[in-house]
Amino acid sequence: MRRKEGAVTEAKKSTGLREGDAAPSFELPGAGGEKLSLSGFSGKKLALYFYPKDDTSGCTKEAIEFNALKADFAKAKTALVGVSPDSPAKHDKFRAKYELTFPLASDESKEMLSAYGVWVEKSMYGRKYMGVERSTFLIGPDGKIEKIWRKVKVPGHAAEVLVAAKGK
Asked: pTM for this one?
């Protein structure tokens, strides 16, 4: 059954969201008890980045890079939100440990992750499992996707997203 589920997910990913499409709506709990929704960012750009798990090496480096550029994103009139399937309580600890100052949303149901096509079948050491494909979506003030990065490599990625945010 897992293989079939993964195949459907892979097919959706390849035919899923594209630049210019309307971003899927969402409403999720965030760290610190906040509620985060796409409509809450209406009228501004949103750098929405998806990551697998709080407090792992790659995810920590990515969060720290985005956090270091938060003021520059603000100057570019672009909000930042990180999303993973971790709980809001885990997000609270992660934010506190690394002094992160931007919102982290929790999608424990994986509905939003699926809507964005980032909940995919992955493989490690021959074992197949479902997980988050590290991805970023730059959403314009009109709610349309301006740019998509999939299978992100962490070093320099936040700076690349910032360049795109400034460019439009």
From this structure: 0.86
